[in-house]
Write a structure and sequence with these properties.
The chain is an all-alpha fold. Among the domains are: about 60 residues, Serine Threonine Protein Phosphatase 5, Tetratricopeptide repeat, CATH 1.25.40; about 110 residues, Serine Threonine Protein Phosphatase 5, Tetratricopeptide repeat, CATH 1.25.40. It is built from 20 helices and 2 strands. Strands 1-2 form a two-stranded antiparallel sheet. The protein is flat.
């Protein structure tokens, strides 16, 4: 027999038992619901948090395509999180999806029109799209609100520099250098000053018999002479001077994508990967099928450990031309850097059979020695600072290397 709680015993004397039992059942059900509901709510709230943590983890590991996908899923359940939306827009911009990045930033600004960081980020993407006038206007608007906004100063300086106004860009670059101590900014300042010095008008004394013979030596080189000078400096391994000379030449000839590719290549080899990537993407916006530039971009991305992006480019090239040796070598290098030594060895041996390249031959021996010493250890090796040999091409015409 069921013993009723004390507070129901008196009530049960005047009410039929089946109604009392029904009341007890309802009380039990209500208590159970109260106990379960908070648990269900907690479980539902954890799902978006896990998605966000996953997206941030991918981003920290520089696995940007996966991070983008995770942020999209998170925003599907938390569309009000504009901080995550801003991060998604940033990653989309880095990956070259400029239109979607711009759309994301503009969406945020409809709700937060005074957010200077979002305005600056939008202006930066617009500059990558070569919407220079709009980007300049936005950078200037940000600086009118905060004169010390370093990212806006840097963005405005880049816009002025890219549009051939190095003299106007110089004071902004100098302020950025003072605030950030960025060595690449210092190099660009030196390049601009060199160009201004070369372009400055001179007022020599009237020619005399003594100095007429020296006039051809004192005459400043034109654009073609400056390109030849850059190439000579690069051949002589004076790389910093060569980079400055290429920059100076491109101020006069911004249409010369061969020189721009040479500058990007040298910047990449000197470790300035971010600017090299921007230059390569700029060239591909005009010459999207140039195989050599695509491979050079993929190589530079791999040095940034952006392996998925690099592999996508190599595979796209091989889809068009399965015999493309450099793209196959790029995939072999990626496989090696990502820790799969056995598969990398097979790819290197296949490459060597096609073309007995000495660098590939040495790499085959190195991988064999490593596998023999410790067949399990190589998995997941850190690639910091690692660069396998890569042929330093000399251009003989746009889109062709020797």
């Amino acid at each position: 027999m069921i013993r009723l709680p004390w507070f129901l015993q008196k009530y049960s004397r005047s009410v039929p038992h089946h109604q009392v039992y029904l009341l007890v059942a309802m009380l039990v059900f209500s208590c159970g619901t109260i106990a379960v509901s908070p648990l269900q709510a907690e479980t539902k709230s954890q799902a978006p948090r896990r998605l966000l943590e996953k997206a941030r983890s991918f981003e920290a590991q520089q696995q940007y395509p996966q991070a983008i996908s995770a942020y999209r899923k998170y925003l599907g359940v938390r569309p009000e999180d504009d901080e995550a939306r801003s991060t998604l827009a940033k990653l989309l911009g880095w990956q070259g999806h400029y239109d979607e990045a711009v759309s994301g930033y503009r969406d945020i600004l409809t709700r937060h029109p005074l957010d200077l960081e979002v305005q600056t980020a939008l202006a930066r993407v617009l500059s990558w799209q070569k919407h220079f006038d709009e980007a300049q206007h936005m950078f200037e608007a940000v600086l009118s609100e905060d004169v010390n906004q370093v990212d806006a100063m840097s963005g405005l300086a880049d816009v002025l520099f890219w549009t051939g106004r190095g003299r106007e860009a110089l004071p902004y670059y100098e302020r950025v250098a003072a605030a950030s101590h960025d060595p690449e900014i210092a190099k660009r300042i030196d390049a601009i000053k060199t160009d201004l010095l070369v372009a400055a008008p001179s007022f020599p004394a009237p020619a005399t018999k003594a100095n007429k013979a020296q006039l051809h030596v004192e005459r400043r080189p034109g654009a073609s002479g400056r390109l030849a000078e850059a190439q000579k400096l690069e051949t002589g391994k004076h790389y910093a001077e060569a980079i400055a000379a290429y920059r100076s030449y491109l101020l006069e000839r911004p249409d010369d994508d061969e020189a721009r590719a040479a500058l990007a290549r040298r910047l990449a080899w000197e470790g300035n990967h971010a600017e090299a990537v921007v230059l390569y993407r700029d060239i591909l916006s005009r010459h999207p099928t140039d195989v050599d530039v695509r491979i050079s971009l993929a190589l530079t991305l791999s040095w940034q450990k952006r392996f998925d992006e690099a592999r996508q480019i190599y595979e796209a090239v091989l889809l068009e031309d399965p015999r493309q040796w450099d793209a196959k070598k790029g995939i072999a290098d990626l496989t090696f850097w990502q820790g799969d030594r056995a598969k990398a060895l097979a790819l290197y041996e296949s490459l060597y059979a096609e073309h007995p390249d000495q660098d590939v031959g040495r790499q085959i021996q190195a991988v064999k020695a490593e596998l023999m010493t410790s067949p399990r250890a190589p998995v997941g090796q850190d690639v910091g600072g690692l660069r396998l040999p890569y042929r330093d091409y000399a251009k003989i015409g746009y889109g062709h290397y020797s």
